[in-house]
Write a structure and sequence with these properties.
Length: 508
């Protein structure tokens, strides 16, 4: 085994310069995504929109050019766990198809799907799989009449890698995974488990003696988890919605025995935990000394503090000992400045147009719910201008008054997952729909009536009794939720709305 790895190393170093002189090129690289959830790109609402399959493609191409690379995905790939509203079926299907085609071109090696991927039935699932062109593994899972395979063997360079899938779908995947692993006649260089479920299932998979590494999807968290190395195989996670890539560089992957975790990420995580513990203990020691608490063994606690400080100061990436196998995992965020693959970008733009054109006609007849007898309906912000001219002028220039153009300039104003928060009275009685925005489109943008309520009665009888004055936080967060407005603080945001002419007197 040693000779084999050594040979590989020599070959690897012969090709091109290793990235750092101290660290030889890895023998194998794993790039993983978890819980992509059908995201082709971020919506753009937040202060730092992360991800995008065009950025992902660009980065993956560079990563895989450097060293032999296994590319895997775990967790909901094609669809989001949140069901899309009625009429979104076509746009979601087209998006999933585009996603599959792009991942196929990048050479995805294996997928273990999540529950949302099965939501639209067996035929749709098989069609997506066909387009993806990669093995889809999930031990014990049945889709329609077909039992999905538990294991796929993938070749990367000279290495054979077995990918075993354990997804919590309808049945417990563990017995089937165990059986399939035991039935193998020869041992691959590496066995990677793709787990979709919770941390418990990941730990169970990590304890399977044949499994070398676990990649965990299906967690309801945006942030990637740092490597978990307590028991059995290391467990890794890659966040969600394609906001970044998990990159795991392996040295001597087929050596026997435990891995050495050589990730800066793990060191930084441990350092943060120690810092917290040290700060906490320092504060407590100070309090004990101040209060002269006899019951506490202060000396023992001081010694503990010294121990923690020493551990912290000594933290560094361990050298790879002779013959051991090591991994170094990192999380590469795909930030707004990350370059995009131009061809992929073009496809996304074309897809946006196609979806826009489709929904514009397919949903043209969609009308808002009817207004109950005696209740007001939406009239649009321009109807307020004649009596509240300063407020209207302010609003027009505010981002709320341009919210529809934000979508239209991106060919997304008919996308069902965008329009609702960028228009007025969306799907409310007497309000708007994706295609019907009042006569002349007066319900475009985030209008007065989103905050003050539908205004028809106030037009007929312009008194305080016919309109709502203030807008509570619960109203704002229908749109300014965590996913779309990461910096939202009600008081601070509301205060910026109150200007001379709107909420404050026009200056004399
Ligand atoms: C025909 C003139 C007229 C039009 C059009 C009009 N308003 Fe008013 N609005 C008034 C008057 C007058 C008051 C003051 C009522 C009072 O204080 O008795 C008022 C008050 C308000 C208030 C404050 C209510 C309060 O409790 O103090 C809000 C909010 C408001 N209007 C919003 C709107 C919106 C939104 C529209 C468009 C849908 C609109 N108005 C259209 C005349 C108008
Ligand atoms: C119907 C959805 C919706 C509601 C309700 C809503 N907003 Fe907004 N808000 C938006 C959108 C969309 C934008 C961004 C528009 C753009 O730039 O295209 C925005 C932008 C803003 C901005 C500008 C932020 C910036 O970066 O300049 C402020 C401030 C704001 N909203 C405050 C509020 C407050 C406070 C409330 C509640 C009283 C509220 N909004 C209710 C959708 C909404
Ligand atoms: C749940 C409501 C919601 C949905 C759905 C939504 N947005 Fe937004 N969007 C907002 C809010 C709120 C803001 C303003 C955030 C802030 O400034 O705090 C915003 C801001 C934006 C901005 C930034 C505007 C600027 O000029 O800075 C863009 C771009 C945008 N949205 C595009 C989209 C697209 C594209 C989609 C669909 C993929 C979408 N939005 C779906 C609520 C939403
Ligand atoms: C994002 C929410 C929001 C939007 C959009 C909005 N307002 Fe307001 N408006 C408020 C808040 C908050 C207040 C302050 C209420 C208070 O003082 O109790 C206010 C106050 C007012 C008042 C009463 C105070 C005054 O200045 O006389 C009027 C009238 C008013 N708005 C009209 C409008 C009109 C007209 C539009 C559209 C052109 C509009 N508002 C758009 C949130 C909004």
């Amino acid at each position: 085994m040693r000779t084999f790895s050594w040979l590989l190393l020599v070959v690897a170093c012969g090709g091109s310069e290793p990235s750092s002189p101290a660290e030889p090129r890895p023998d194998l690289r794993i790039v993983a995504i978890t819980d992509l959830q059908g995201y082709l790109e971020p919506c753009g609402c937040t202060s730092r929109p992360l991800g995008g399959i065009d950025r992902l493609a660009q980065r993956f191409t560079a990563l895989s050019a450097e060293t032999p690379t296994l590319f895997v995905a775990a967790g909901d790939l094609w669809l989001s766990p949140q069901a899309h509203g009625p009429g979104a079926e076509t746009q979601e299907r087209w998006r999933a198809e585009t996603l599959s085609e792009i991942l196929k071109e990048l050479g995805l090696d294996a997928l273990t799907p999540g529950p949302a991927d099965l939501r639209e039935g067996a035929d749709r699932f098989f069609a997506h799989r066909e387009r993806l062109g990669a093995p889809v593994v999930a031990a014990g899972a049945r889709v329609g009449e077909e039992a999905l395979p538990a294991i796929a063997s993938v070749s990367v360079g000279d290495l054979r890698i077995d990918v075993v899938g354990l997804a919590r779908l309808d049945v417990d995947p563990l017995p089937a995974a165990r059986e399939a692993l035991a039935a193998r006649t020869d041992r691959p260089a590496l066995t990677l488990a793709l787990v979709v479920g919770d941390r418990r299932l990941a730990r169970d998979a990590a304890m399977l003696p044949e499994v070398d590494l676990v990649i965990l999807g299906g967690l309801a968290r945006a942030e990637p988890l740092a490597p978990q190395t307590t028991d059995g195989a290391p467990i890794l996670h890659a966040g969600r919605q394609g906001q970044g890539l998990l990159v795991v560089d392996l040295r001597r992957p087929s050596a026997e025995g435990a891995w050495l975790d050589r990730s800066e990420w793990s060191i930084a995580t441990r350092r943060d935990a120690l810092d917290d513990e040290i700060r906490d203990l320092e504060a407590r020691l100070e309090a004990w000394t101040r209060e002269g608490r006899a019951a506490v063994d202060v000396d023992a606690q001081r010694a503990r503090l010294a121990g923690l400080r020493t551990e912290r100061d000594r933290l560094r990436v361990p050298p790879l000992a002779d013959g051991r196998r090591g991994f170094s995992a990192r999380w590469e965020e795909l930030d707004p400045d990350a370059p995009r693959a131009p061809a992929v970008r073009e496809r996304l733009t074309a897809l946006d147009r196609r979806i826009n054109d489709h929904n514009r006609t397919a949903l043209a007849e969609r009308t808002p719910p009817p207004v109950a007898e005696g209740e007001p309906h939406y009239v649009g912000s321009d109807a307020c201008a004649s009596c509240h001219a300063p407020a209207h002028a302010w609003w027009r220039a505010h981002p709320h008054g341009r919210a529809y153009e934000t979508l239209a300039s991106r060919d997304k104003q008919f996308h069902l997952d965008c329009v609702g928060c960028h228009v007025t009275g969306y799907e409310r009685p007497g309000g708007s729909t994706v295609t019907q925005l009042g006569d002349g489109g007066v319900l475009r943008d985030v209008g007065c009536e989103n905050c003050h309520g539908p205004g028809s009665a106030h037009l007929t009888a312009p008194t305080a009794a016919t309109i709502t004055r203030d807008a509570p936080e619960s109203l704002c967060v229908r749109c300014h939720n965590e996913e779309h407005s990461d910096r939202f603080v009600y008081d601070a945001y509301r205060a910026t709305l109150l200007v001379p002419g709107h909420g404050r007197p026009v200056s004399p």
